[in-house]
């Protein structure tokens, strides 16, 4: 019994020791947890990585830490110099190691490094390394936020490398080299229903095939991309599909020179309708989100309308693009606009576009001479018109001066004759009339002033409503031009200040003025101060003297 108990105790201690020995360090375990969510939640990943004490990490853990931190910072668009140094440190450890998954990831990340001249080489190394990878740490499966297995983890990185490598080849001018990698990624993402990644691969494949003039294949992958865009509910990318179909229709029109004219015209109508559908889909989207797509639609419609000889529509959409792109407008757009303006007989705008075409750095071929002639002819026409206008203006000025001189001479003669004839009689009559008018005016002014004061006083005492309107009517009946003349001499006075000027002519106190105008006394006082400042007079009553005497 005793030997059995000792053996059992020994086995229990051995198992406990073995279990304790294989338990991974806390930091290493945390790094794998972070790796499983750092792409979806880079902010949270950065916070967790920032809390780790890097001084206690082993070389392997530190390389893992540097790789994750670099990828997380890249997602957050942080300091590129720091990211580059972290990737370099990770590369020093993983290069040639047994950690093929993280080695491939390091090369992949370094392929994004802007300062690396041979980035394509690193992407190729990433591809070669991931294809050698057969296993990954089981914690990448255990801590994954979605159900997965080791092969799925490897495939996610491998096909991401395929996709980016293919895009790099296409963007570098090698579409045939990029197609084979893009096909692999497109098939994979379609099979696992990762719609966003599949959409990117499909649309890039469409672009690549269009570059090598295989437009049927281009259209095929546009349709495959549309399925993913619809599955995601991505309206902008659904609109891109219609733009791509519009491009396809235009290309078929240009290349099928021997096709039936009605069929070629139908292709142009289809191109326009596809663009209209794209614009309709983008109506609800933010302008910045689909800025480039809108430009592509308008440019395609401008070209299609030009080919259909609907030149007004061509100009409408073409000028929209030209106003946005300015100097960045394409040669093809400018040629369409030039042709439309020529057909419409708009020589001014045709010369403007011809000048833009001549300023382009590349040669315009056989059209170069024609464009130069159009511009020179228009410039010559403008110069002749300018000279003719100057001569016409000079002629009109001469006629004007002659006319003015004749008018002045006739006026002088007429006044001289009248002056000599009526001098003595007019002088005597004016003197007598002046005396009589002065006497009558003084009498009438006095009577009118007294009558006005009496009527105004009566109105103030007896009218409860519209008192000021009645007072103003009485004032205007006696001095009809006084207020107009006052306003003409002092245009800065507003309506309320004019009302106070009218009431100040009468012997109203400030309280009575405020009562008539329904204002406060201090408001009336402020207006009176403003009036004196604007008119530069000591008393408001004195303002009326020039107008009622």
What does this structure look like?
This protein starts with a helix and ends with a helix. The longest helix is centred in the C-terminal third of the chain and has 96 residues. Among the domains are: about 130 residues; about 120 residues, Serine Threonine Protein Phosphatase 5, Tetratricopeptide repeat (Alpha Horseshoe), CATH 1.25.40.10; about 90 residues, Orthogonal Bundle (Arc Repressor Mutant, subunit A). With about 550 residues, the chain is mainly alpha-helical.
Averaged pLDDT, please? 83
Q: How much strand? A: under 5%
The total strand number stands at 0
The value of Rg in angstroms is 46 Å
State the secondary-structure class.
Answer: mainly alpha
Helix content: over 70%
Distance between the termini: 144 Å
Order of helices and strands: HHHHHHHHHHHHHHHHHHHHHHHHH
How would you characterize the largest beta sheet? none
Low-confidence stretches: 1-23
Q: Tally the helices: what do you get?
A: 25
What does the overall shape look like?
elongated
């Amino acid at each position: 019994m005793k030997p059995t108990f000792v053996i059992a105790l020994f086995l229990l201690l051995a198992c406990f020791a073995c279990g304790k020995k294989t338990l991974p360090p806390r930091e290493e375990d945390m790094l794998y947890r972070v790796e499983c969510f750092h792409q979806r939640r880079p902010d949270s990943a950065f916070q967790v990585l920032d809390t780790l004490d890097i001084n206690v990490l082993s070389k392997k853990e530190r390389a893992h830490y540097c790789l994750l931190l670099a990828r997380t910072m890249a997602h957050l668009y942080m300091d590129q110099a720091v990211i580059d140094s972290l990737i370099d440190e990770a590369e020093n450890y993983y290069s040639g190691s047994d950690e093929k998954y993280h080695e491939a990831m390091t090369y992949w990340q370094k392929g994004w490094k802007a300062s690396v001249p041979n980035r394509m080489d690193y992407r190729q190394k990433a591809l070669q390394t991931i294809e050698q990878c057969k296993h990954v740490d089981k914690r990448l499966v255990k801590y994954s936020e979605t159900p997965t297995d080791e092969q799925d983890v490897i495939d996610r990185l491998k096909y991401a490398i395929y996709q980016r490598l293919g895009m790099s080849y296409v963007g570098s001018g090698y579409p045939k080299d990029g197609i084979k990698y893009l096909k692999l990624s497109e098939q994979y993402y379609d099979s696992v229903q990762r719609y966003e990644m599949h959409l990117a691969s499909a649309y890039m494949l469409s672009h690549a095939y269009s570059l090598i003039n295989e437009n049927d294949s281009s259209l095929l992958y546009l349709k495959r991309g549309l399925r993913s865009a619809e599955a995601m509910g991505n309206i902008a990318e659904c609109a891109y599909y219609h733009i791509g179909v519009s491009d396809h229709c235009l290309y078929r029109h240009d290349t099928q020179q021997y096709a039936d004219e009605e069929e070629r015209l139908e292709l142009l109508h289809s191109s326009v309708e596809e663009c209209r559908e794209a614009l309709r889909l983008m109506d609800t989207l933010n302008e910045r989100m689909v800025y480039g797509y809108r430009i592509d639609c308008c440019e395609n419609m401008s070209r299609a309308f030009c080919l259909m000889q609907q030149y007004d529509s061509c100009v409408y959409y073409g000028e929209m693009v030209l106003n946005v792109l300015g100097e960045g407008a394409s040669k093809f757009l400018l040629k369409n606009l030039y042709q439309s303006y020529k057909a419409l007989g708009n020589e001014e705008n045709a010369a403007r576009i011809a000048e833009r075409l001549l300023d382009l750095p590349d040669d315009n071929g056989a059209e170069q001479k024609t464009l130069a002639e159009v511009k020179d002819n228009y410039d010559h026409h403008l110069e002749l018109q300018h000279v003719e206008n100057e001569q016409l203006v000079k002629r009109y000025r001469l006629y004007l001066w002659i006319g003015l001189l004749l008018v002045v001479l006739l006026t002088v003669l007429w006044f001289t004759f009248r002056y000599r004839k009526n001098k003595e009689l007019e002088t005597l009559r004016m003197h007598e009339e002046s005396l009589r008018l002065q006497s009558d005016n003084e009498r009438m002014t006095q009577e009118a002033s007294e009558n006005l004061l009496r009527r105004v006083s009566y109105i103030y005492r007896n009218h409860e409503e519209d008192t000021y309107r009645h007072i103003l009517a009485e004032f205007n009946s006696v001095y009809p031009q006084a207020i107009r003349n006052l306003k003409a001499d002092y245009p800065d006075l507003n309506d309320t200040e004019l009302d106070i000027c009218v009431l100040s002519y009468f012997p109203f106190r400030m309280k009575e003025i405020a009562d008539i105008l329904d204002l406060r006394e201090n408001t009336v006082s402020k207006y009176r101060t403003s009036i004196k400042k604007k008119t530069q007079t000591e008393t408001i009553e004195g303002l009326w003297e020039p107008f009622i005497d």
